[in-house]
Fold this protein.
Amino acid sequence: MREDGRTIVCYIGIGSNREDPVLNCLKSIELISALEHVKISRKSSLYRTEPVGVQNQAWFINCVLEIETSQKASTLLSMLQNIESAMGRTREERWGPRIIDLDILFYGQEIIREENLSIPHPELHTRRFVLVPMNEIASYVIHPSFGISMKGLLNRLKDTSAVDLIRRREQ
């Protein structure tokens, strides 16, 4: 629990490209919603996205959640990693296939650089598969390291990989 007990708005990136990626993403959202001191505020649509890094793999399903939490960032990370493990995630190849990937994109406007935790996510500003769903639910969020909104980052993006809407978010 945060020392001040207050909640903070965070953004979580979700991705999967193994077994049933849509079901994996939906299951992870369900598990995140059951976490203690975590409330989902908004969910983006689901997107089918071209792999980045390792190209020779199945396309991904990606989305972004906005949550409110009173958990410390390190505790939230541990909780998300527990969900990944429970769903069968193994860490084998960087940027390789995965059953589920849960990343803390933003933790309020905090900048955290620790051994196992980097917030904002260090590559989110270069990835269309993150910025498109992020813009759907929070185009106004300012990246604390760059002072640029999500909309501004998407407009400047050089990544041209495909990001196709497959399931519109629930209202």
Notes: DSSP finds four helices and ten strands in the chain.
